[in-house]
Amino acid sequence: MQHDDPALQAVVDQVREAASREAPLRIAGGDSKAFYGNPVEGTLLDTRPLAGISSYEPSELVITVRAGTPLAEVEAVLAERGQCLAFEPPRFGAGGTVGGMVAAGLSGPARATAGGVRDHVLGASLLNGRGEVLSFGGQVMKNVAGYDVSRLLAGSLGTLGVILEVSLKVLPRPAASASLCFAMGQADALDCVNRWAGEPLPLSASAWFEGRLWLRLAGAQAAVRSAIATLGGERLDDREAEAFWTSLRDQQHAFFAGLPLWRLSVAATTPPLALPGESLIEWGGAQRWLISTEPARRIRDAARAAGGHATLFRGSVPGVAAFDAVSPPLARIHRQLMTSFDPQHLFNRGRLYPSD
């Protein structure tokens, strides 16, 4: 980024002034993910003036974007060249920005096959708690030397600093896609998607809900046609399929109207969890959404017993933190990292850990 940019200088000045007073700052772009995480204190630091596409090299499959750029704008530019962000970042509102996308670290239906946000971050510029602009990584996929701080930003929820600019790996849109639907129970669906994952099938996404398994295929025309013939099932109309997967990506599906909404991350092969409530399963079984009023301790204990964890994703519960507690050694590493980048914990104080 150009250090003499007025928008950047305004953000630097705001951070330095806040640091001089030890006053917390709440980082936000479109604020479309304000619901995610614990309540945040502090004065608003608006990243939207830091907008624009810095560079785009379609032949190199790389785009560099300033943090306040609307996600919809980036995806429209990529679509013109037949490319996309393969991890399908969710849009929880019309104003979502690239910085928020990286900070939240959330991915859509294709996560299990395409990878997550951090797998596509090649480099980033960050403003730390001292008002210093730092750059990490680069703009080429082979740049993996040293500690990959740029990817560490994915999912940090703004607690390490203000993301200023990111370089992202992009991919061509699939030549063909098709969606199939099967009537089956949860246990059978988990067995099928895990078995199919080990076969040479162009799987792109899966979802199970209310006794039906949806499967999306994407890739070369011949591979998709062959998979349809092999798997059978009911093929969805292309328009209906697009609407379904988009509703999952953006949580506009009717399922997500319920609260409280829990997100359980477990191994894909984990059998159905004995928890009351309504479930929707994605990512071949690795992401399990649960709407339940069961005590948080029971839900989190069930996730831990399966080797995973549970997040209170949407809808507050009195006395319950959004994120599950991590082990003391890991918590110590988290806090040391936060302190090294933001000594006074100015940024998004409390969003990851309520006691910050």
What does this protein structure show overall?
- By secondary structure, this protein is α+β, with helices and mostly antiparallel strands.
- The protein has helices at 6-21, 71-80, 98-104, 111-114, 149-152, 186-197, 221-231, 238-249, 296-305, 328-341; strands spanning 25-28, 43-46, 53-57, 62-66, 83-84, 121-127, 133-137, 162-169, 171-172, 176-183, 203-209, 212-219, 234-235, 261-265, 278-282, 287-291, 309-314.
- A hairpin with a 4-residue loop joins strand 15 (278-282) and strand 16 (287-291).
- The chain has 10 helices and 17 strands.
- The longest helix has 16 residues, at 6-21.
- The two termini are 30 Å apart.
- The strands form 4 sheets. Strands 13-10-12-11-15-16-14-17 form an 8-stranded antiparallel sheet. The protein has a 5-stranded antiparallel sheet with strand order 3-4-8-6-7.
- The chain is globular, with a radius of gyration of 21 Å.
- The protein folds into 3 domains: 6-172 and 335-341, Uridine Diphospho-n-acetylenolpyruvylglucosamine Reductase, domain 3, CATH 3.30.465; 176-249, Alpha-Beta Plaits; 255-314, Alpha-Beta Plaits (2-Layer Sandwich), CATH 3.30.70.
- Mean pLDDT is 94; it is low at 140-146.
**Rounded mean pLDDT score:** 94
Number of helices: 10
CATH architecture of the largest domain: 2-Layer Sandwich
**Overall radius of gyration:** 21 Å
Strand order, main sheet: write it out: 13-10-12-11-15-16-14-17
CATH structural class of the largest domain: Alpha Beta
Count the beta strands: 17
Instruction: Specify the overall morphology.
Output: globular
- Could you describe the largest sheet, including whether it forms a barrel? 8 strands, antiparallel
Q: How many structural domains does the protein architecture include?
A: 3
**What is the helical fraction, as a range of percent?**
25-40%
In the CATH hierarchy, the third-tier topology of the largest domain is known as Uridine Diphospho-n-acetylenolpyruvylglucosamine Reductase, domain 3
Strand content: 15-25%
* Low-pLDDT residue spans: 140-146
Order of helices and strands: HEEEEHEHHEEHEEEHEEHEHEEEHEH
Distance between the termini: 30 Å
